[in-house]
Amino acid sequence: xxxxxEGACPLAVRRPSQWRELARNFTEEEKKYLTLxxxxxxxxxxxLGTYGTLAMETPEQEPQSRGAELDWQRTAxxxxxCGGEAVQRAAGEENVSAEEAIRDLEKMHISYLNSTYDLxxxxxxxxxxxxxxxxxxxxxxxxGYRFVVENVEILSEKENRMWKMGEDSSGQMSLMRITLENHxxxxxxxxxxxxxxxxxxNKKPEKYRIHTDARAWHSGDTTILCRQITLLWFLRYFLRxxxxxxxxxxxxxxxxxxxxxxxxxxxxxxxxAGLRYLCLYGGLIPLADR
Length: 290
What we know:
The protein is built from nine helices and 16 strands. The protein is globular and about 65 Å long. Strand 2, helix 4 (about 65-75) and strand 3 form a beta-alpha-beta unit. Helices cover about 25% and strands about 30% of the residues. The longest helix has 11 residues, at about 65-75. The model is unreliable at about 165-170 and about 255-290 (pLDDT under 50). With about 290 residues, it is α/β, with parallel strands linked by helices.
């Protein structure tokens, strides 16, 4: 099947034990396209048989306990496109809350959930509240990658000179430092080109490519991006003033023409083409401490 797919999409199995068994005969390149789809998520203590009951003291036996397997997934499934179906428990058993589910989804690195297979657990999450939004929305906001720009700075002249290491010191160029965090459960699984774009009213936007691999912006991690830019007059002015809305963009374009829509899936693979806007930045851009 791997030969037939030729890397066009991931090949998923249900159990981590199945993944490990198959991976024994896979090359490192083939392993990149082997992932997990758990269709019994939260349905029982073993996710309806996805996991076993063996403790970590028996590592050579398969499958291991749910806790041991989630610890394995936290590391082994980084950078892979994992999904599944959240299902209710048997009558008389208490369902998993959205808050509890989020803790496990972080370890599973889940990019998408089926939104139509079993509605009862999802309906329960809609009635719960987490930080002012429904549990359903709180889960949905973190499916896949969710890159958030936390800060944007223009480096001080001293820092800028140190960074340029003897390059042009005319003052026409400066360094922008962008701090972002991935608040999602997973990361970007497709190769992508990343760009910084700065707009000035009635003028052609300034666009800069940022040399980075966005696939390395892992869930829960903080990433620092730096890019030398032309220090436009309006940017000098706005160092101490509010930036107009829709002025600074960070966006990326996936190298493939179609990429998976990493969100709630209606039972199928939903391709989406085009550019992905990482953020719009409006506010104060501080000058870094000298």
